[in-house]
Amino acid sequence: MACGEFDLIARYFDRVRSVRRDVAVGIGDDCALLSVDEKKLIAVSTDTLVSGIHFLPDISPADLGYKSLAVNLSDLAAMGADPAWLSLALTLPEVNEPWLAAFSDSLFDLLNYYGMQLIGGDTTRGPLSLTLTIQGLIPAGSALTRSGARIGDWIYVTGTLGDSAAGLAILQDRLTVAEKADRDYLLSRHLRPQPRILQGQALRKLASSAIDLSDGVIADLQHILKRSDCGARLFLDEIPRSAALLRQTSMEQSLQWALAGGEDYELCFTVPEINRGALDVALGHTGADFTCIGQIGPKSEGIQFISNNRPVENIWLGYDHFRE
Amino acid sequence: MACGEFDLIARYFDRVRSVRRDVAVGIGDDCALLSVDEKKLIAVSTDTLVSGIHFLPDISPADLGYKSLAVNLSDLAAMGADPAWLSLALTLPEVNEPWLAAFSDSLFDLLNYYGMQLIGGDTTRGPLSLTLTIQGLIPAGSALTRSGARIGDWIYVTGTLGDSAAGLAILQDRLTVAEKADRDYLLSRHLRPQPRILQGQALRKLASSAIDLSDGVIADLQHILKRSDCGARLFLDEIPRSAALLRQTSMEQSLQWALAGGEDYELCFTVPEINRGALDVALGHTGADFTCIGQIGPKSEGIQFISNNRPVENIWLGYDHFRE
Q1: Is residue A146 within 8 angstroms of chain B, CB to CB?
Q2: What residues 28-67 of chain A have any CB closer than 8 A to a CB of chain B?
Q3: Where are the beta strands (DSSP E) in chain A?
Q4: E strand or H helix at A99, and its extent?
Q5: For residues B90 and B109, what is the distance between their CA atoms, to the nearest angstrom?
Q6: Contact A129/B133, CB-based, under 8 Å?
Q7: Per residue in B260-302, pLDDT tens?
């Protein structure tokens, strides 16, 4: 069957399910055309996912469609932005229609949930990979950046950490979990991370800085510290871990995954003392758990790990693709 | 030498050469933050280039840096937009510093020429490929789309067609050109296409539709015809070809490459009879050649090829990645 590139795009991705009023021209021209309210800023982020590096080659197309967008949404969450538009570049080794149908169904479910519109992209033949460029909108002056943390601010994370690393270990046969409920939970935390869009928006006027946790809290917190010119004390005993993770691994393993396992896509953020009460109310309303795990200190002290009120040596580093 | 992903990005791509006032946050946070004048629309386009498909594996990094951006700029040109921001996703098999230096120098030369800013992206390990998402700005109501062509409008192209296909044929040893000047010219037309940004802007109030020529004029014109619900007559004897191409190939070969060779990145556009005089002035001022190659007709007549005032059969089709 003859199946041209343009037919392909039209069939699976040119779905007019979500039509935003700010999209003057969508898929099908040389460019999409978008309008923006002058009081808003655009937040833009790009993520590439390569088969065998960012996802296992046997991942289901539905999980891949969900996760690739969820990971990209997580960057918007870390800025406090409202999701708006997606550009999708899809490189495929072959035209596999059931794969495309499952992938695009899953992607559109998440797009539609957030009122987003797919505005364009590219489809090419080659080794399986995806690049997503997501755009969101945010009232001018209220974006969360990495550079606003100040000495004395409290360091928080949403949710629990380390579950995604455990889910990956299950998929790679490095961890065996007999209990079905725990196994399903840990796998879903790896394959279906929940972007913290609502929480990012709730933090707009309360947090002094924020980042999403893709490489593990140690590595990601260091981006905040570098941009904010600060140090930090991290309370290891407070690092939040799920009951499933604690049941299925040793304390040491769960802590290592929580600190440096990566792909949790929770938010890490800093809050001045004066905003802590308001934070409890605002984040409480979103229904998400959140935990204070440390405090910003002077740059000269670097990053210190504290357990039982005593310093602990730093032995772990976050995942870094090109580190040798 | 330890060389982390973030060092890499910082060293080669976080250059603050071009600082636009509309970029509130650039590279280095979860998202870039951009502001837009309310009277402007944003034009967005994404292109993926895969090694061995869109460029030869032995292409020089300087040519690749130039061409990948030029191809993306060509989409903005086809809408009449002013170039503004670039997101770059780069997938590399290994960290090769001389390659990165040459690639990024060349990319930044072109970015700086157009007053653009690199606002973010992603760097990952994997088979060599690039995805660029370019954004431009355009006064509301003046974008050139594919859907505005009307019966009787004249069809034009800028520059000459087929040179890029001849340049590719030289690189692939399918064409031998002894004369150095012609060889250099044809190679540069393939490796260093000139995006028609100025011409696109000059066409804003004059053209009824426009597209850039990536797949060959037959294939690309059909996108205008489909979106505009029209047909066309194409005057084969008028298809503009360079002196170098005519010297180095047969008439038939030059016409085939001009019609279906692809990668010329010239503009194809339609102009109502009443705007033809103004077009001569406006495009003349940009210094680019342009040629009337046909006329829009009713949809029922499809696309007709005319030579010596007689119809000719259509035997060629544009390049289509997934056509079997």
Answers
A1: yes
A2: 28-38, 41-48, 50-54
A3: 23-25, 32-35, 40-50, 82-92, 117-125, 129-139, 154-158, 209-212, 231-235, 267-271, 290-297, 303-307, 310-312
A4: helix A97-113
A5: 18
A6: no
A7: 999 999 999 999 999 999 999 999 999 999 999 999 999 999 9
Query: Which residue among A30, A37, A227 sits closest to B45, beta carbon to beta carbon?
Result: A30
* Among B87, B131, B204, B211, the residue to mutate for chain A (most A Cβ within 10 A): B131
State both tokens at A254: 């769960």
Task: Please check whether residue A248 is in contact with residue A182, taking contact to mean a CB–CB distance below 8 angstroms.
Answer: yes
Average pLDDT, chain B: 91
Give the ipTM of the model, two decimals please: 0.88
Is B4–A133 a contact, with Cβ atoms under 8 angstroms apart?
Answer: no
Distance CA A101, CA A132 (A): 18
pLDDT tens sequence across A187-208: 999 999 999 999 999 999 899 9
State which residue of chain A sits closest to B38, comparing Cα positions: A38
Asked if residue B237 belongs to a known ligand binding site, the reply is no
Distances from the Cα of B251 to the Cα of A62, A124, B242, angstroms? 51, 32, 12
Structure tokens at B78: 């086809």
Report the chain A residue with the minimal C-alpha distance to residue B49. Answer: A124
Choose the closest CB to B50 out of A91, A121, A135.
A91
Helices B61-79 and B97-113 pack at an angle, to 10 degrees, of 30
Distance in Å from the first CA to the final CA of chain A: 46
d(CA A293, CA A240): 8
- Mean pLDDT split into 10-residue runs, chain A, 324 residues: 53 76 90 93 96 92 97 97 96 90 95 94 90 97 95 98 97 96 98 97 96 95 96 96 97 93 96 97 94 97 90 58 40
The answer for A 185-214 residues in CB contact with B (under 8 A) is 210-212
Please answer yes or no on whether B79 and A3 come within 8 Å at the CB atom. no
Strand order in the sheet with B129-139: A23-25, A32-35, B40-50, B129-139, B82-92, B117-125
What does residue B219 show for φ and ψ, rounded to 5 degrees?
-65, -40
Domains (ranges, CATH) in chain A? Answer: 8-139 (3.30.1330.10), 154-311 (3.90.650.10)
Using a CB–CB cutoff of 8 Å, tell me whether B96 touches chain A.
Answer: no
Query: What is the structure's pLDDT at A53?
Result: 87
